[in-house]
């Protein structure tokens, strides 16, 4: 940046009030310094990268024009709010993002008065904006409500539902589309910028509204003029859809021209009703590798070894890698296999599958409900769909799992990644509830592998099973034992004994087996790898109860309604003479941190498990 670094404009900014004091000519310099600050910080400490570099100018312009925190900025998806955090008093803490005790990687109301809405998932902002706008209708000093939606979030059906409602209610909200894939309009030119500035100006809005009033008494003429206006605007800008939903459409506009954004937003702040501003940005802007490879640079790992040391061992395969191996090999043998994912092709391990079988790989965008029901449709026509989805995202399609898949007992395999403790992304991404909400569903088989080989075998067994099946596994690396030659046939509903012991039986569900093994050796306890949450191996439990006084269930799922609860129900209903203790995730939302830190806080590591068992005996 040369001499610009000497300006140190970013050092003058501790709140949005400071942005408002800057001369107009320094706004671009502020954006340059802010972008460089983010590049250096995120590359060192890790976090969401590309999307944050793309919204620097938009963030500066928003805080320049709007009176935050009275005016509400709602970020969607929340991982594009790093620049917002820097400009709202959290610049010194940005290096702690995603670390235990540090700031959240997403907007969080408890963290700052400038975070209007806590969010980790996508497509929620417009619905929240509608609620806020309605709640503020009776206020004298009505705040501006602005929803910034981007990074694919507009593909979510919930966003379209909210647009439809907001337009019908004629609410005073501004929706800004951060279009960083140029999916709606591929080019931005001077003419379009000029037209956007023109049609957002108060004089144009007044003229248009006055024209509509004049022709109110001549319905046929008015309808013709309105239709002609929409068609004319539709030829030069892609806003007809939004106008049909009741929004006035403005754009597209260059999202990296901060002075232009300031002028447009200034005009729109004075305009009332449902407004839709289309902003074109470049994901990874300012960092050449991120500009060229947007997917890989969506988020980056830290380069600081002290931060990274408790994360993942690169020499071992992740469970996601195991899934990737399995689905490619199975698809070679069965051309009925189709893979479906809601915008998580890379994260769910489908990149290789997409390259090899492009016609059988369906990325439906951020539309979890559609993904599940689409799978049901494929199954009805004799295909074998595999839904690759994160645990916390499957929550969004729970109705479809029940109504469209389970009731019809369709052959759909759910490959559930990011189950259990996720770590740095915190509560919004923790897969803490899937065992609880899936085991209640009739016809559903639910399994949790304890290592990579079991994961492969369970995917094979689940695919062969007739009916809906869920295989849930974590984000993490396994223990390094992955060997496809050892991946034997998995019988549905069968547990196994790994260690014979005394009066205590530790029943481990899923990847908690490693910690349970350590505890079992110190207690001379029997260790069982339960494997299946539904169906439970009831005969196994009945036989085990004859030789043991205590059952200890351990899972990385919420205790309420989880795998341990299933064992409780079986013991109670069959009047087994055994005392039981459930160990799992506590009844609270987990903060962000490394897996090891969260396990320790939840007392789900060896030390915590031993403590819980000893206090129970």
How many β-strand runs?
19
Helicity range: 40-55%
Number of helices: 26
Largest sheet: 7 strands, mixed
Radius of gyration: 27 Å
**Tally of separate domains:** 3
For CATH, the homologous superfamily of the largest domain is named as Thiamin diphosphate (ThDP)-binding fold, Pyr/PP domains
Which segments are poorly predicted (pLDDT under 50) over 5 or more consecutive residues? 1-5, 182-188, 305-315
List keywords for this structure.
Rossmann fold; five-stranded parallel β-sheet; 26 helices; disordered N terminus; 617 residues; seven-stranded mixed β-sheet
Structural summary, described in words:
The chain is an alpha/beta fold and 617 residues long. It folds into 3 domains: 2-300, Rossmann fold, CATH 3.40.50.970; 319-486, Thiamin diphosphate (ThDP)-binding fold, Pyr/PP domains (Rossmann fold), CATH 3.40.50; 497-616, 3-Layer(aba) Sandwich (Rossmann fold). It is built from 26 helices and 19 strands. A 7-stranded mixed sheet has the order 9-8-10-11-13-12-17, sandwiched between helices. It has a 5-stranded parallel sheet with strand order 2-3-4-6-5, sandwiched between helices. Strands 14-16-15-18-19 form a 5-stranded mixed sheet, sandwiched between helices. Strand 8, helix 16 and strand 9 form a beta-alpha-beta unit. The protein is elongated and about 85 Å long. The termini are far apart.
């Amino acid at each position: 940046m040369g001499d610009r670094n000497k300006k140190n404009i970013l050092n003058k900014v501790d709140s949005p009030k400071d942005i408002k004091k800057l001369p107009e000519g320094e706004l671009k310099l502020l954006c340059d310094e802010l972008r460089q600050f983010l590049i250096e910080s995120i590359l060192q400490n890790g976090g969401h990268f590309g999307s944050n570099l793309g919204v620097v100018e938009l963030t500066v312009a928003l805080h320049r024009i709007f009176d935050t925190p009275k005016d509400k900025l709602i970020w969607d998806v929340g991982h594009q709010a790093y620049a917002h955090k820097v400009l709202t008093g959290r610049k010194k803490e940005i290096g702690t993002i995603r670390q235990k005790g540090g700031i959240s990687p997403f907007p969080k109301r408890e963290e700052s008065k400038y975070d209007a809405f806590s969010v980790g998932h996508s497509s929620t902002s417009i619905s929240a904006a509608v609620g806020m706008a309605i709640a503020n209708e009776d206020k004298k000093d009505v705040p501006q409500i602005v929803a910034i939606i981007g990074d694919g979030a507009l593909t979510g059906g919930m966003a379209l539902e909210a647009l439809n409602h907001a337009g019908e209610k004629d609410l005073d909200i501004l929706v800004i589309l951060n279009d960083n894939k140029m999916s709606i309009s591929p080019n931005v030119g001077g003419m379009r910028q000029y037209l956007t500035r023109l049609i957002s100006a108060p004089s144009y809005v007044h003229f248009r509204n006055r024209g509509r009033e004049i022709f109110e008494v001549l319905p046929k003429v008015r309808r013709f003029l309105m239709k002609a206006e929409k068609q004319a605007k539709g030829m030069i800008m892609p806003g007809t859809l939004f106008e049909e939903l009741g929004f006035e459409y403005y754009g597209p506009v260059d999202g990296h021209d901060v002075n232009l954004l300031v002028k447009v937003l200034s005009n729109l702040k004075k305009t009332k009703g449902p407004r839709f501003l289309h902003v074109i940005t470049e994901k990874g802007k300012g960092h050449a590798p991120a500009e060229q490879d947007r997917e890989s640079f969506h988020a980056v790992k830290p380069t600081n070894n002290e931060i990274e040391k408790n994360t993942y061992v690169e020499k071992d395969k992740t469970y996601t890698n195991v899934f990737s191996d399995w689905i490619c090999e199975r698809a070679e043998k069965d051309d009925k296999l189709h893979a479906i994912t809601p915008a998580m092709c890379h994260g769910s391990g489908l990149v290789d599958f997409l390259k090899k079988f492009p016609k059988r790989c369906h990325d439906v965008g951020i539309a979890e409900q559609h993904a599940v029901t689409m799978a049901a449709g494929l199954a009805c026509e004799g295909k074998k769909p595999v839904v690759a989805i994160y645990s916390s995202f499957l929550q969004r399609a729970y109705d479809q799992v029940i109504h469209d898949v389970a009731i019809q007992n369709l052959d759909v395999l759910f490959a559930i990644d990011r189950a259990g403790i996720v770590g740095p992304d915190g509560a919004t991404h923790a897969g803490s509830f899937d065992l609880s909400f899936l085991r209640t569903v009739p016809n559903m088989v639910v399994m949790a592998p304890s290592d990579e080989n079991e994961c492969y075998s369970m995917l094979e067994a689940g695919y062969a099973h007739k009916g809906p099946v869920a295989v849930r596994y974590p984000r993490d690396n396994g223990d390094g034992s992955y060997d496809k030659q050892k991946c034997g046939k998995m019988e549905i509903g069968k547990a196994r004994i790994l260690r014979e012991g005394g009066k205590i039986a530790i029943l481990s569900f899923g990847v908690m087996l490693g910690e349970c093994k350590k505890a079992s050796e110190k207690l001379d306890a029997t260790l069982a790898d339960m494997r299946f949450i539904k169906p439970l191996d009831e005969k196994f439990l009945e036989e085990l109860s004859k030789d043991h006084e205590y059952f200890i269930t351990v899972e990385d799922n919420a205790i309420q309604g989880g795998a341990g609860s299933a064992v409780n129900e079986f013991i109670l209903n069959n009047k087994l003479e055994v005392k039981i203790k459930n160990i799992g995730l506590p009844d609270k939302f987990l903060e962000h941190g490394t897996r090891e830190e969260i396990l320790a806080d939840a007392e789900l590591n060896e030390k915590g498990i031993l403590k819980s068992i000893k206090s129970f005996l």
